[in-house]
Structures are given as structure tokens and as C-alpha cells.
């Protein structure tokens, strides 16, 4: 957070000026933040577990696993049309051209599709717990991208968090007991590891680019704009994934995949449907937190979710939780705590500065 930025917990004042729906008191703003946090944590944990369940039960299509991560975007159309601002309020602000918006959403959508594909490959060759722990590196990547793209300060605490999270991922990489869910080879495990790290880096870049888009291109942050970005980028990503599904020839095997699914055809369809729904719930939380707070805070909460997922995987899939994984998870939590504390210090400093400015203004007016 730079010196001229608002404190994180003072965003409600900005929101009040932007849309009638968000004329919020402080407790209402906190409720909005809490709802987005719940959507992100619950959605991401459920989506990762369902994705692992799809592979465990006989699913093999990486492109289908990629497609369902964005195919549920029509669900968002209902709140989008309900929360659209009136023509008068939308006409009062200058909007970017259709060509600019189309280019922005196309580029972001293609990046989302590529990111989802990398995640799908990673989840194919890694257990849900290992996958989630490696994904925690996204916070370290976000610190770097936020520094270059969003003017985020690189403090000692953030550097400490980056180092700790990097060590956490390195422990997983060199752990001799690390293996895929079905005892996959070391080569495939390494491929899964590299794809997951690459996906984490690309995901962090996406969050920073979204925040930059709100600041420099869209130049307004209402919830309808947040949903619009999510819908159109998901539409592009779904189109790219559909092309990949047909171009790769994987679509030919989907019927046999459904017939051979261990828990039955109905379970196969429900798994894909609920995976699509939970990813959209997660996406609303992610983009909502970028809108209400920042890409940094959104990624911090996403990392917290990744610390919860290994515990859920331990219960649902009976994943092995050896000493190295436990240490890696504890390191990830330490890195998360370091980041949260830095957020707290930034907010406290910004509040103090804002109070001083207000007092000086009051004194000069008397």
C-alpha cells in the first residue's frame, strides 16, 4: 500500500459513492468482506476436492477439467442484471470503448484458460493436499507482481513471507515421499509440480492485471463491473477450452468416460456440474475481494483456503500427511500470518495519516 492509498478498512466510504446498492455502514462493509471470504474459501476447497474426485473416479480429460472451471459463468448473469446501475448513473461516468473492453476481456480470458489448463494438469498428477500446498506459492508471486504493477511496497515482512512460502514449496518438491494419487512416476510428479507452480504464478499475474484494469481502464469499481469482468473473461476462457477439447480429440472419449465412471453416470454429470458451480462461487469471492479490498488481500485469503484444503483432503481422500507436508503447511501458515500482519500495519499507518489530514483540515477551517 502506497502512502496515497486509502486504508483497507476505509473502502466503505469509496463504495458509498459508487452505487446505491453499496451505501454501506462499517458493519455492512465487514459483512460484505466476510461473505466474499466465505465464497472464496468454501468454493475453492470444494472445487479442488471435486476436481480430484473426478480424476480418482476415472475421469481423464484435462480439457474437460479445464472447461468446468469457467463453464458455470451463466449463473452470474442473474446477479449481474439485478445489480446493473441505472442508465443515469452509468451515463455519468465515461466508459472505455467497446474495442478496448473486448481486447481486455479477450486477453484476460485467454490467460484464464491457460491458467486453468496448468491447474488441471497439476491436479491430475498430484494429490489434493500436495497440490494445495504448492499453490500457496501464489502469494509470493503476487508480492512480486503487486510491486511492479500495483505499486505495492516490498517490506521486510512481505519479503519474509515470500521466502517462507518458497521454502514450503521447495520442501514438497524435494520430498522423497511425495507422489501422485495413484503412485505416478517421479517424472509425472515433477510435471505436475512445475505446472502447478506455473499456474500459481499466472494466477497471481491475473489478479494484479485485474486490479490494474479496474484502476487504469475501467476506472470504476462497482459490483456490476466486477461481475461483468468475470462473465466475459469466463466466456472467452470457456470458448478457448471448448476449442481445445475438440482440437485434442478428447471429446470422443467423453461418452466412454461417463460409462466407465466408477460411481456411475449420474455421479459423473453431478461432479462436473458442481465443480463448475463451486469454481464460480470461488471466482465471485476472488473478484469481489479485489473490488472491495485489493488483489493482495484476495490472494492472502486464497492462500488461507489452500491451507484448509489439505485438511479436507486428509478427511475425504485419506491423503498421506507425512512430517514434511505438515512442516510445509505450517510454513505456509507462517507466511500467511506475516502477510496479514503487514496488511494490518499498512492499514494502521494509512488510518493515522488520514486522521492527521482531517485534523489539519478542521484546524485550518476554524
Automatic annotation (TrEMBL):
A Gene Ontology cellular-component term: membrane
Major place of residence: membrane
Transmembrane segments: 29-51, 63-83, 103-125, 131-149, 156-174, 189-210, 231-248, 268-293, 300-317, 323-341
GO molecular function: purine nucleobase transmembrane transporter activity; purine nucleoside transmembrane transporter activity; transmembrane transporter activity
Record key words, sorted: Membrane, Transmembrane, Transmembrane helix, Transport
InterPro entries xref list: EmrE-like (IPR037185), PUP_plant (IPR030182)
Subcellular location: Membrane
Topology term for the membrane: Multi-pass membrane protein
Keyword Repressor: no
Family stated for the protein in its record: Belongs to the purine permeases (TC 2.A.7.14) family.
Stated name of the protein: Probable purine permease
Amino acid at each position: 500500500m502506497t502512502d496515497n492509498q486509502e486504508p483497507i478498512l476505509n473502502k466503505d466510504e469509496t463504495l458509498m459513492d459508487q452505487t446505491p446498492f453499496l451505501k454501506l455502514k462499517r458493519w455492512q462493509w465487514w459483512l460484505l468482506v466476510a461473505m466474499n471470504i466465505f465464497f472464496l474459501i468454501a468454493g475453492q476447497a470444494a472445487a479442488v476436492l471435486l476436481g480430484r474426485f473426478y480424476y480418482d473416479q476415472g475421469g481423464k480429460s484435462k480439457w474437460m477439467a479445464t472447461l468446468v472451471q469457467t463453464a458455470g459463468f451463466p449463473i452470474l448473469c442473474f446477479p449481474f442484471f439485478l445489480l446493473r446501475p441505472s442508465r443515469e448513473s452509468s451515463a455519468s461516468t465515461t466508459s472505455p470503448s467497446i474495442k478496448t473492453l473486448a481486447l481486455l476481456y479477450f486477453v484476460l480470458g485467454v490467460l484464464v484458460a491457460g491458467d486453468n489448463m496448468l491447474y488441471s494438469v497439476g491436479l491430475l498428477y498430484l494429490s489434493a493436499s500436495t497440490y494445495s500446498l504448492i499453490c500457496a506459492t501464489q502469494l509470493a508471486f503476487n508480492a512480486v507482481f503487486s510491486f511492479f504493477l500495483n505499486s505495492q511496497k516490498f517490506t521486510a515482512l512481505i519479503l519474509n513471507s515470500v521466502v517462507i512460502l518458497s521454502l514450503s514449496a521447495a520442501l514438497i518438491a524435494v520430498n522423497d515421499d511425495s507422489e501422485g494419487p495413484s503412485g505416478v512416476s517421479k517424472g509425472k510428479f515433477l510435471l505436475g509440480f512445475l505446472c502447478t507452480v506455473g499456474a500459481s504464478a499466472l494466477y497471481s499475474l491475473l489478479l494484479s492485471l485485474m486490479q490494474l484494469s479496474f484502476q487504469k481502464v475501467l476506472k470504476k469499481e462497482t459490483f456490476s463491473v466486477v461481475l461483468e469482468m468475470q462473465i466475459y473473461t469466463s466466456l472467452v476462457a470457456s470458448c478457448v477450452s471448448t476449442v481445445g477439447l475438440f482440437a485434442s480429440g478428447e471429446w470422443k472419449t467423453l461418452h466412454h468416460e461417463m460409462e466407465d465412471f466408477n460411481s456411475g453416470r449420474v455421479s459423473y454429470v453431478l461432479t462436473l456440474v458442481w465443480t463448475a458451480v463451486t469454481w464460480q462461487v470461488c471466482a465471485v469471492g476472488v473478484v469481489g475481494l479485489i473490488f472491495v479490498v485489493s488483489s493482495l488481500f484476495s490472494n492472502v485469503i486464497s492462500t488461507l483456503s489452500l491451507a484448509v484444503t489439505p485438511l479436507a483432503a486428509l478427511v475425504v481422500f485419506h491423503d498421506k500427511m507425512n512430517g514434511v507436508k505438515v512442516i510445509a503447511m505450517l510454513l505456509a501458515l507462517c507466511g500467511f500470518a506475516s502477510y496479514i500482519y503487514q496488511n494490518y500495519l499498512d492499514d494502521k499507518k494509512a488510518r493515522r495519516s488520514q486522521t492527521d489530514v482531517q485534523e489539519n483540515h478542521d484546524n485550518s477551517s476554524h
